[in-house]
Design a protein that fits this description.
The complex is a heterodimer of chains A (762) and B (331). Chain A contains 16 helices and 32 strands. By secondary structure, chain A is an alpha+beta fold. Chain A has 3 domains: 112 residues, Aldehyde Oxidoreductase, domain 3 (Alpha-Beta Complex); 305 residues, Aldehyde oxidase/xanthine dehydrogenase, molybdopterin binding domain (Aldehyde Oxidoreductase, domain 4); 138 residues, Aldehyde Oxidoreductase, domain 4, CATH 3.30.365. In chain A, helix 8 packs parallel to helix 16. In chain A, 59% of the residues are buried. Chain B has 331 residues and is α+β, with helices and mostly antiparallel strands. Chain B has a 5-stranded antiparallel β-sheet with strand order 4-5-8-6-7. Chain B starts with a strand and ends in a 5-residue tail after the last helix. Classes of the chains: A alpha+beta (762), B alpha+beta (331). Bound molecules: flavin-adenine dinucleotide and iron/sulfur cluster (SF4). The site of iron/sulfur cluster has 14 residues of chain B, from loops.
């Protein structure tokens, strides 16, 4: 892979923040010293396993668990007969229906693979063997297996996902050049390396949950609501997580079951989902389908976009995978119409997966734009630049920053786009067809409050303390850098404690909102601690800096001194010793001053305070442009991605090394999405049959080409206190269409349904 | 997984005796066995570890051919200098299989006996019907998701693909499986599913594969294994071909050609019709393509795997072309 030299405008390498610090907790991870949720040594732990439905829809008539109860080692069997006494917990927004019962082991079966029975035994093997002895009789009901099921219907229109301006139908009808295409994406799964699971332990009415989490506070709230105990009684611990990609933001049915069993048994319980259960116990990305019609003038000026999309959801909750999320903001268009529907099918409710909404949306609009370019006989790069959106046509607001033009032009330059020959099938290397394609991506800037605590210790070490999560994206590293910068000390003098709901509240590690949020809080708390130190150093009678006449002090290279002055300089431990202080502690948050205790709680445990991209004066988003080269063996239909250049506008980069790694990760996932990933559903019983990592394919190292990433962003202080925009989600958005477009350029075949597997090309 | 006892065999006799007990299975590299035990397909009562038997892991190559001990590791054989020279297709079939970690663990004997990747076979808790697991229970795959299922050698009882690569190369070059003193040609070693898909090979309970021998031939020396799949590595074949080619002295006319297919059939599939169509012929693109299509005689599509009927002959064609070009016999 190519590592681009740091760029001036993008990474703002103007201090410790912005530097290419290596992963702060990296050595813990590579030496195995980092402890993951299921590895905590908990004494006397019992093991729970789940028995799942094998039908897609119906009712449980009877559970025969007698032999299972008598099997060796079995401690407890829970079935739909047992009243676990739960009521539905709050949703993301913090809204909680009153007294609505919640059945994590339901009688009413809504999808194949739904947990029905739980078995707890002395060890996991015993629990699994006992599980095989359970027999469940069902009354089956008709089911809808997937979005492709003939009985799926057209679904429900989501009123909040209807967008119209101008007169799209009329403008389309009048447009001299029109194209129409229907694009679809299959069910996709997170397949994080670390599977889901948890260990729970009760001490009286206090519960400790070790569970991989993208949001320790939000999940702690759910547990407290399920068990009707004060929030403070829950402690959720998740200092390291082996990948989440959107799947680890919420407490799930198996968590409720394990926690219930632990309380009932009066001993700790561990429940580790099997890999196949990671395909059924929480939802991946919903399958989507969208039809796009574009109208343009003969010289390629867009006149209208008409978009009609649908995604599958479960029969018990509406989760829209918004196929129209990127459609309205990528291009300048005066006439626009978009609708999105959800189609209930018998699946677990789908969930957020990297780049939710924007990702399939971009596959649609970015494929359609290239179809238009070929219809016009125009370079797809030129078409995109010609229709560049000077402002957000949806909200009418100006962009805060939008350097998508630079992403397109600098990306094209680095890729060598000008050497392209336009006609499909015109580039080859022997028998291998070569194709180039572009795909643009975007992800909104979401803003959320966070809180952080800074502790300066007598030995001069600085602790950063927050409940925020690092799931590999670099939270530890950038927070250490932030504190190091404020105190003018090396990064290794900083300690960072994360991933515990008892620690100060923070935004979710999701929606690319964490870094911008938590950095603001840490910076604020650290600055406050430094100010307190300055105050003490200038005023304390024992301070050597007292009589210098200065009204402030500098913190640089590990020394505290008078600005520009001679006079004494002290290290942090020396100053702490002179002041006679064991520690200095500050706790700060980014809520408005005077926020109530209830607002605090709400801020960390719900999404109620999250600000969308257009809630202020500007429209704020990250942007990217991917350039992909593919090599296609036409006889075999095999596609290999041979080169990718991607240019990003994510504002200021707090640590270019971490950011590049996130971008690359997103691009690699995008390669999987384009070429490999697809949950294969058996229409007869709604089961995803390739529910394991041997059959659900993601890219191997051999599938990862040379990837060059370029930053074209500038600090965006509207987007966040320190100028960054989100980086985690946007990397995948636009990769799949770039590859699909390259495949078209190579072969002349337009594949509109992902993934582009070999049978679609031979 | 339930409790089982573990027994480390110290002699072949020992192992055989132990393996005769009800519920006993042999353990070599364990990469298939553990996998199947975890998904509940195999429920051993006794695991008989044969990896400590000496003299079963040798690799001997001479002018007559190669004899490879059943416990030789996939990676050792793949990288063996003389195997690479005398049987490139065998070496390639191994190095294109599985992953480096698996190849370091897995043995030649175990490799032959790996079992189908049919998703329905592998999920007994959900799909009760599987004639291979439970004779007479039916076949869940027929009418289901069949993208990876076989088009050749199928029956109404079972359409599961034999997934391995090595055996495809072996069947092309007339290798034999040694079971103690018994020698069985690879082609006869594997059985068609017919009405008894649970019986995959001629092995009887207690039989231990001791070695694999491959006769030397000019065709084996000029051979290749071509494996086509969606992912670049670590995936079973969508279709693969082991091909060996020997020309007459004129350098153009085919004296001997071997063709076998993987990823498309219920057993390692020797494509004799293709061979017969090409022996004695001078190769050109059209002849090769026509002959390759003969491999699909009798192919049955299940819908999801229809593409294999298109793909497999192309894989044969390409493999022959690559070899032909290499020795200059193909214009
Ligand atoms: C994720 C994954 C991907 C894979 N991809 C590929 C691939 O692309 N291509 C490919 O060809 N293979 C592939 N494999 C299969 C792999 O090659 C086999 O698992 C391996 O070769 C089995 O060898 P082993 O020694 O580990 O066998 P074991 O698991 O030890 O044994 C397998 C079976 O053979 C029996 N057995 C073992 N040795 C003997 C003997 N000497 N005599 C009699 N019976 C014996 C055992 O009792 C058992 O039933 C893959 C496997 C996995 C898990
Ligand atoms: S194809 Fe064979 S292995 Fe698969 S379900 Fe049918 S009988 Fe079982």
């Amino acid at each position: 892979m190519t590592i681009m030299p740091p760029r001036k405008h993008g990474d703002a390498s103007d201090g410790v923040v912005g530097g290419r610090q290596t992963r702060f907790e990296g050595s813990l991870k590579v030496t195995g010293a980092a402890t993951y949720a299921l590895e905590y040594p908990v004494e006397n732990v019992a093991h729970a396993v789940l028995v799942q439905s094998t039908i897609p829809a119906g009712r449980v008539l009877n559970v025969n668990a007698e032999t299972a109860r008598a099997a060796p080692g079995v401690l407890l069997v829970l079935t739909p007969e047992d009243d676990l006494g739960f009521t539905v917990a709050s949703d993301w927004g913090g809204n909680r229906p009153e007294n609505q019962p919640y059945y994590p082991l339901p009688r009413h079966v809504q999808f194949n693979g739904q947990p029905i029975v739980a078995i707890v035994a002395e060890n996991r093997e015993q629990a699994f063997e006992a599980a095989k002895l359970v027999s469940i009789t069902y009354e089956e009901a008709p089911h809808v297996a997937s979005l492709d099921d003939p009985n799926a219907g057209e679904g429900k229109l989501m009123g909040n996902l209807v967008f119209n301006w101008g007169d799209a139908e009329a403008a389309l009808a009048a447009a001299p050049v029109q194209i129409e295409g229907t694009y679809s994406t299959p069910r996709e799964y997170h397949v994080a390396m670390e599977p889901h699971g948890l260990t729970v332990k009760w001490d009286g009415d206090q519960i400790t949950v070790w569970e991989p989490s993208q949001w320790s506070h939000g999940m702690a709230r759910t547990y407290s609501e399920w068990f009707d105990i004060p929030y403070e009684n829950v402690r959720l611990i998740s200092p390291f997580i082996g990948g989440g990609f959107g799947s680890k933001g919420a407490a799930l049915a198996h968590g409720a079951v394990a926690a219930f069993a632990a309380r009932k048994l009066g001993r700790p319980v561990k429940l580790a989902l099997t890999r196949p259960q990671n395909f059924t116990n929480y939802g991946g990305r919903a399958a989507t389908r969208q039809t796009i019609r574009l109208g343009a003038t003969e010289d390629g000026i867009l006149q209208a976009i008409v978009h009609r999309g649908a995604s599958e959801t479960s029969t018990y909750a509406d989760w829209p995978e918004q196929t129209g999320a990127a459609t309205p903001i990528l291009y300048k268009v005066e006439n626009f119409s978009s609708e999105h529907r959800v189609v209930p099918v018998n699946t677990v409710t789908p969930g957020a997966l990297r780049g939710p909404g924007k990702n399939p949306s971009s596959f649609g609009i970015e494929s359609a734009m290239e179809e238009l370019a070929y219809k016009l006989g125009m370079d797809p790069l030129e078409l995109r630049l010609k229709n560049y959106a000077d402002h957000d046509y949806q909200s009418g607001k100006p962009w805060s920053t939008r350097r998508l033009r630079e992403a397109l032009t600098e990306g094209a330059e680095a890729f060598g786009w000008s050497r392209r020959s336009h006609a499909p099938r015109s580039m080859r290397d022997g028998r291998t067809l070569i194709g180039w394609g572009i795909g643009c991506g975007t992800f909104p800037v979401l803003q959320a409050p966070s809180e952080a605590l800074i502790r300066v210790l007598a030995n001069g070490r600085v602790e950063v303390v927050s409940g925020a999560i690092d799931m590999g994206q670099g939270t530890y590293t950038v927070l250490a850098q932030t504190a190091a910068e404020v105190f003018g000390i090396p990064v290794d003098q900083v300690e960072v404690h994360l991933g515990d709901s008892r620690l100060p509240g923070s935004a979710i590690a999701g929606g690319s909102m964490l870094a911008g949020s938590i950095l603001g809080a840490v910076h604020k708390a650290a600055t406050a601690a430094r100010d307190e130190l300055i105050g003490l150093a200038l005023n304390d009678e024992n301070s050597p800096l007292r009589d210098t006449g200065a009204n402030t002090l500098t913190f640089s290279e590990g020394r505290i001194a008078v600005p520009r002055g001679e006079g004494p300089s002290l290290s942090l431990p020396e100053l702490m010793a002179a002041l006679g202080r064991d520690e200095i502690e500050t706790r700060r948050n980014t809520l408005p001053d005077g926020a109530s205790a209830q607002e605090h709680h709400q801020a960390w445990t719900t999404m109620a305070k999250v600000q969308g991209p257009t809630m202020g004066e500007y429209s704020m988003h990250s942007w990217c442009a991917h350039f992909a080269e593919v090599r296609v063996d036409e006889d075999f239909g095999t596609v290999r991605v041979s080169r990718i250049v991607s240019a990003f506008d994510c504002g200021r980069l707090y640590n270019p090394r971490m950011v590049e790694s996130q971008w690359r990760g997103g691009i690699i996932m995008g390669i999987g999405q384009a070429l490999l990933e697809e949950g294969l559903v058996d229409m007869r019983n709604g089961r995803t049959v390739n529910n394991n990592m041997g059959d659900y394919l993601v890219p191997t190292n051999a599938d990862v080409p040379d990837i060059q990433v370029i930053s074209v962003g500038v600090p965006d202080y509207g987007a966040s206190a320190l100028g960054g925009k989100g980086v985690g989600e946007v990397g995948i958005v636009g990769v799949a269409p770039a590859i699909a477009n390259a495949v078209f350029h190579a072969t002349g075949k337009r594949v509109r349904d992902l993934p582009i597997t070999l049978e679609k090309l031979i | 997984m339930r409790d089982f006892s573990y027994l480390r065999a110290t002699s072949a006799d020992d192992a055989q005796k132990a393996a005769l007990q009800a519920g006993a299975v042999l353990l070599a590299g364990g990469t298939t066995l553990l996998d199947l035990a975890k998904c509940g397909v195999t429920e051993p009562e006794t695991v008989v570890d044969i990896t400590h038997l000496s003299s079963l892991d040798g690799i001997a190559v001479d002018e007559g051919g190669a004899t490879i001990g059943a416990l030789a590791r996939m990676s050792e054989v793949a990288d063996h200098r003389e195997i690479k020279a005398a049987f490139p297709a065998v070496s390639e079939s191994l190095s294109l299989a599985a992953s480096a970690q698996l190849r370091n663990m897995a043995t030649m004997g175990g490799n032959l006996l790996q079992r189908t990747r049919c998703s329905y076979f592998r999920e007994p808790g959900v799909f009760a019907a599987c004639n291979k697991r439970n004779p007479g229970s039916g076949c869940s795959a027929i009418g289901g998701v069949t993208r990876n299922h076989a088009i050749l050698g199928t029956s109404d009882a079972c359409i599961a693909t034999y997934p391995g690569d090595l055996a495809v190369a072996l069947v092309a070059f007339d290798a034999t499986v040694e079971i103690g003193s018994r020698r069985v040609p690879v082609d006869d070693f594997f059985l068609l599913p017919g009405n008894t898909p649970d019986r995959e090979t001629v092995l009887e309970k207690g039989d231990i594969i001791t070695a694999i021998s491959i006769p030397a031939s000019a065709a084996a020396r000029n051979s290749t294994y071509l494996k086509v799949r969606d992912r670049q590595s670590y995936e079973f074949a969508a279709a693969s071909a082991a091909v060996g080619l020997e020309f007459e002295a004129d350098g153009r006319t085919v004296r001997d050609i071997r063709v076998a297919l993987g990823g498309v059939a219920t057993k390692p599939w020797r494509a004799r019709a293709v061979e017969q169509a090409l022996v004695g012929k001078a190769l050109d693109a059209e002849t090769v393509e026509k002959a390759s299509s003969l491999a699909m005689e009798g192919a049955v599509s299940q819908g999801g795997n229809h593409y294999k009927i298109e793909l497999a002959p192309r894989v044969i064609t390409r493999a022959i072309e690559q070899l032909g070009l290499k020795v200059g016999g193909l214009a």
